[in-house]
Structure formats: C-alpha cells, structure tokens
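It is worth pausing here to work through a concrete case rather than discussing structure prediction in the abstract. The textbook approach is simple: state the sequence, then state the predicted structure, then interpret. We follow exactly that order.
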Amino acid sequence: MGEIRFDGQVVVVTGAGRGLGATYARLIATLGGSVVVHDAGVAPDGSGFDPAVADGVVAEIAAGGGTAAACHENLEDAAACRRVVEFALAQFGRVDGLIHNAGLVVFASLEETAPEVWTRMIRIGVDAAFHLTRAAVPHMRRQGYGRIVLTTSGRAMRVEDCVPGLVAYATAKMAQVGLMVGLAAELRDAGVLVNAISPVAATRVLRRSAPELLPDYVAPGVAFLASSACNTSGAVLNAAGGRFSTSWWDHGEAVDLGPTLASVDEVASRWRQIVARGAPTE
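Step two, the predicted structure:
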C-alpha cells in the first residue's frame, strides 16, 4: 500500500474547532485534503457562539500550507446541516468525506434530564448525523465514491463502561451505530463506505491530564476510515492511546428450546446457558 493521501479530495469535519475534530482536520489537511472546518464555537453545554474557534483552526492549516474553510452552522437545525454540505460544494466543488465529530455531553440522571436537554442532545447526536448524511450522500452517489465516519462511544456500548448520568448521551451515541449499519447496507453498491469511531482522548469533554490520551493518537484511525484506502463498511473502530480494535455486532450460539413452543419457565431455566452462548470468548 502506498502513502495515503487526500489530494483532490474534500472532507467535512464537524466539531473541528477543538480537540479531536481539530486534530482530524489538521491531519487530513497535512495529507493534502481540502477541509471544511465546521464548528459553531459553543460552550460544553451547547450554549453560545464563537466563530473564532473554527477560524483559528483554518488559519493554522493555511499557515502550514494546507487548504481549509471555516463553517459556523448550528447543527441543531436541519437546514443548517444541509448548509454545511452546500458550503463545502460552494467552496470546493465536491464532498468526498464526512466526519461527524460534533457532540454534546450533559451529565444528568434520568429524572434530572429536562426535556430541553434531551432534545438538544438528540438534535446534535442523532438528528444532525441523519441530516448531514442525507445531504452528503446524493453527491457521493453521483461521484461513485464517498467515506462517512460517525462517532459513537464505548460508554454507550457496554454497561461495564458506562457511568450514571449518561442516559441521553449513550442514546445519542448508540443511535449513530444504528445509522452506520443502515447506511452501510443501503450504500454497499454505491462506492460509499460508512464506519464509526469510538475514541478515547483527553479533551474538554474527557478532562484528564493523560499524555497517552492525546487526540493525535486517535486521528490516524479516523483519517484511514475517511480515506480511499479503507475498504470496510459497517465497523466501529475503537481508538485510545495508539491502541486500535474493531467492534462488530454478532449473535451468540442459539440454545434450541424446540420443537414445541417454549414456556416462560423453560426460557428462565435455560437463561444461564443462553447468556453463556452469547458471551465473547478470549
């Protein structure tokens, strides 16, 4: 395999003004891609607006000889999501990659999750992913090529990895796995591949003083998924501290309770065996 490059390609990165998204944008620009740096410049709770956040990353990329343009749309609005893609087309004439990194984390128990908080989390984590892909896919279909990278979280995929207060967050992140699966199936013959990243990195969301968890250790995996070198669709890439693995949903081995109709008691009596058949093996 030759050196992976993005020359002649246009990649949209949402939430690219800070942290992981900014690192993705800088890396892809370094590899020759034209990058739409999207960021509304909001606070951690989703409030406020600061265009300087995205503008600063664009200036940094330009200073290094790269090509980028800043976009400041609020992704809580469906029309704004469409405008992000329209902006990429107006600036660069095409869209080859979409990395939906923008997200929102609000810690609150189920009872404390106010309807307006739930709505905001779902708009950013679920609705925006849908509207962005819905806007980008027709252009990718016409090109016969596209790469989409959504963002999930290990917090959403395993009870053991979750903590209290993340009901809305886990819902939004797991929804992107479902969107990934649906899109991967629908686009399998269109030259458009769809995967997801499950990153762990020290950012303003995950506040840790941990040099081994720099966003730079995640970015190469995301750049690969967004590149023409990737030929996989429908996988979750787990990335943390330079360690990478994939997650695939599968079924455990079935326990046959037939041929007659099983009773509730029979299911209960065989439950340990059913669970054991679905447990991963070392």
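Step three, interpretation. The longest helix spans residues 115-143. The mean pLDDT is 90.
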